[in-house]
Prior knowledge:
Layout (H helix, E strand, L loop, with lengths): L1 H68 L7 H4 L6 E4 L5 E5 L4 E2 L9 H11 L11 H13 L11 H9 L7 H17 L2 H11 L6 E2 L1 H9 L8 H9 L14 H17 L5 H9 L16 H15 L9 E4 L3 H22 L3 E8 L4 E6 L19 E2 L6 H11 L6 E4 L24 H7 L13 E4 H6 L3 H11 L1 H10 L9 H4 L10 E2 H12 L3 E2 L5 E5 L5 E4 L5 E2 L3 H12 L5 H4 L12 E7 L5 E8 L3 E8 L11 H17 L30 E6 L15 E6 L5 H4 L17 H14 L1 H20 L4 H15 L10 E5 L4 E3 L4 E8 L7 E6 L2 E6 L3 E5 L9 E9 L5 E10 L1
Helix pairs in contact: 3-9, 3-10, 5-6, 5-7, 9-10, 10-11, 13-23, 14-17, 14-18, 14-21
Amino acid sequence: MKNMLKKTFNNRIKMFKKQKQETALKRRLRQMKNKSITGKFYSLFKKIILIFVIIGFFSTGILMFWISSLEVPNIETIQELKISQSTKIYDKEGELLYRLYDGEARTIVSIDKISKYALYAAVAVEDKDFYNHSGVKPTSIIKAAYENVTNKRNYSRGGSTITQQVIKNTILTPEKTITRKIKEAILAYKLENLWTKDQILEMYLNESPYGGILYGIEEASLYYFDKHAEELGIAESAYLASMPQAPTTYSPYGDHRQMLDDRKDLILKLMFNQGYITVGEYENAVNKEVEFVFKEGNKRMKAPHFVMDVVQKLKEKFGEEIRTLGYKVYTTLDLDLQEKLEKLVKEDIEEVEKTLKVSNAGIVAIETKTGYVQAMVGSRDYFDKEIDGKFNIATALRQPGSSFKPLVYLTALQKGYTPKTILWDVETEFSLKCEVEIDEETGEEIEIPESERREMGCYRPQNFDAKFRGPMTMEQALAESRNIPAIKLLYLSGVKESLDNARLLGIKSLDKSVNYYGLNLVLGGGEVKLLNLVSAYSTFANEGVRVEPTSILKITDNDDKIIFENVVENKRVVDEKYVSNLNKMLYTDSLKYPTYGSYSSLYFKDKDVAVKTGTTNDFKDFWTIGYDAGNIALGVWVGNNDNTSAESFKAGTVSHNLWKKSMEIALEKYPVSYFSEPEDLVSINSKPLFRGVYQGGSTIKIDKQTGGVATDETPEEFIEEIVIPEYHSILHWVDVDNPRGLVPTEKNDAYENWEHGVQKWVSENQESINSDLSDTISGLMDLLDGGVNPGDLMELININNKEESEDFNKSELDFEILSPGNDDEFRETGSVYIKINKFDNSKINKFYFYVNDKYIGSTNRNSYSFKISDIDGIEKENILKITSENSFEQKFSKNILFNIR
C-alpha cells in the first residue's frame, strides 16, 4: 500500500512536473508569440507616427503657404474707414428733432464721452484679459470653435476678443468660416500694434449692435434710456453690455425681459469679481429698478412735417447718402412755438370736425427779417392715418381764394393807382365774347339763358354775399374782400404783370401762361403753397425787401466742421412806398368793420397787424394770413386733405380764430412794432377818382384867395376843387397802359360792359345822384359869393378841359437821351448811366425808368444809373423806356435798345 501510495505520489510528481514543464513551455511559447506581436505593433506604430509627422510637416507647410497666400485686407484701411452714422436734425436751440438713418441708426462718440461703467461692463463680459493680450486668445478661439460645432453657445463670455470683434464688424464679413477666423486673428494682432487699447474699445462700442436698427452705445443709450452714453449708470451699463452678443434674445421687450435681467446681474457679478465696482456699488446696481424709455420709431420725431421737409431738402443737396453721413443739421425751427401751434390745430379741428365737416388745418410761421421758418404744422396729427396725416398741407398746392388779392393790389399801386382809387362794385360782364345787349325800347339788359351764356364763354362772377356795394375805394374793396373790384383791378394792372409780381415775391407754382389763369387769378384761380404765400406776405412785412424762406441754419459734420451755413440775403424787389400803402390797407381795422365787425377775431389791441382772409367758392379752402411790422408772418389753412367741401362758409371762422390765437402766441416772442406811415400816392393834380371822388373825372381848381384859377404857385391849402358830376366806370377816365396819363379818347374794348353796370347803378340811385348835384351847386354858389361870376365860371371850365385834353404841347415834355446810345453793350456786372437833356421850353417835373416794361426807378434830375445785376429778367437784348411827366401828370416816352454781352 505504501509502495502503491509512493508510486502514485511519484506518478503524480512526474505528472505535475510534466504539467509544469508543459505549462512553462506554453508560457514561453505564448511569451515568444506575444513578443513577436508587440514588436510588430511597435514597428507599425513607429511607422504611423512617422507618417503623421511627415503629413503634419507637409500640412503645416501647406497651411503656412495657404495662409501666406490669403488676401488679408490692409489693416491701414481701418484708419480711413468711414463708419455710417445717423444724420441728426435739431431745432434752432439745439434740441434734437429726429435722427435720419439708413438701415442703421448710429452716432459716433469718443471714449471720453462714454461712461466708465459702460467700458467696465463691456470688458468684463466680452474680454476680461483685454488689457493683457495682443489681440488673440487661442483658448477662446478653441472654446468658440467647440461651441459652434456642438451648437452650445455660451453667452456669458465672448468667443472672440474685443479686438477680433472690431475687425469682424469693420473690415471683415461676419460669416463663420476658418478663412475668416484666420484673417480675423492676423488683423487683430496687427490692429493691436496700430491702435491703443482705448481706440480699439471706442471702436467696439461705436460698432456694436443693440437691437433692430440701433448700432453704437450712444444711439442705444438715447433710445433705451433717453440719455447720452456718458451719463449711463452701473446698472444701465450692464443692461447695454448684455445686448451685443444676442440683441434679439436679450431684448427688453415682452417675454425676454427676465433673460435680460439675469444677464445684467451676471455682468454686474463679473464687474465686481474683476474689481471694477465695489460691493456696495454691486448691491445697489443689482437691486436698482431701471426704467426703459422706449423712444421708438417715428414717434421720436418732433415737428414731423417740418423735419420731413428738411429731409427732402437734404436729399436734394446731398443725395440719399445723407442718411449715413452723420451730419448735424441745425434748423430754424422754434420748437416751443411749433408744439404750441400743433396743440392748437389739434384742439380746434377736433372741436368742429363733426359739425363743420373739416378735418384738418395747417400753419406756417416765418420770421420776416431772416426768412427763417419758425413753425410748420402740416396737419393736425402726422400719425393719423384716417386723415392721411403725413400729407403736408403747408407745401401742398391749393387755391388761395381772396388771400391772393394783395398781390394784385400791390401791382395796381405800382402801376399808378392809389388806395383811394374808385372801383365800382357793380354787376359786370368781363368776357369780351359776351357783350351786354340793351333793349332799345326799355333800355334794360336783354337776359340770356345761363346755358347760352356758358356756351358763349361769359364770365359774370359774384361777391361772396351776392350783393353789390356800388362805388368803393381800393382800400375798402380789399379790406372787405369784394370780388368785382378785385377782378377789375387785375384787368387794369395786367394779368402778366401780376403774375410777374407774384413770382418775384416767391409764388413759384404759378408757372403757366397768362391765358391759363385769366381774370380768375385774383380770386385764387392759381394754386399756391401756404409756405410760399406766407413768404410773399413776409415781403410786405419788410416793406418790399425780399428774404427767401429757409429752414436750415447750418450743417456740420460729426467733428463740428461746417459743411453749409445759411447767409441771409436781403433784396429790395418792390418800392417801399407801394408796400407801405398796401400794409396800411391791410392793418387798418376800421376798414374791416363792414365785413367782420369791430373787435373781430382779426383785431389786435395796441398792435399793428395786417391780415387778409381767403375762401374758395366751393368751401374747400379757408385761409387767413397776416403779419406784424417786420417780425413774423403767419398763415393758416383749414379744410380737408381729400379736397372735399366743408359744411359751410362758417369754417372760415375756424381759420380766423386759429390764426388769431396762433399769432398772439408768436407775437409774444417779439417786441411790439408799428408800420411806418406810407407816402401819400395822391397829389393835388391826381384825377378825382384817384382821390376817392367817384362823381367824376373833371374838376375846377380855384384859388380861394384870388377867386381865379389856381396856379403852380398857389399854396395847397388855398386851393378849392370843384368836381363836375359825371358817373362813369374807371375805363372812362384812365388809359389801361398809362393810368396817370390823359383821359383816353378811344375807349377800351371792355368799356361798354363795365359802363353798363355803372349806369345801371346810377339809374337805381337817383337820390344819391341828386345829393351829389346839390353839393356841387352849393360849392359853386360859395365860389360865386367869393367873386366868381357865371361867365368866368364857364371860362374856368373850358380852361380846365383844355388842360385835360389830349391836345397838350408834347414839345414841352420832349427830351434828348444823351447816354446810353442805341444798341450800346454792357457787361452783366456793370452799370448803366443815363444822361438826359431837357429843352429850354421844357415843363418836365420827373423822369420814370423802365427796363423791359418793368419799373426800376424815378428822378427829378437829368441823370440816373442802375446796376444791371439788380434787374430781374435781364436778357441779351433789352428795352430801356424813359418817360417824362409834367405837373398835370401828362406823360411822354422814348425807348432805346441796349445789349448785354
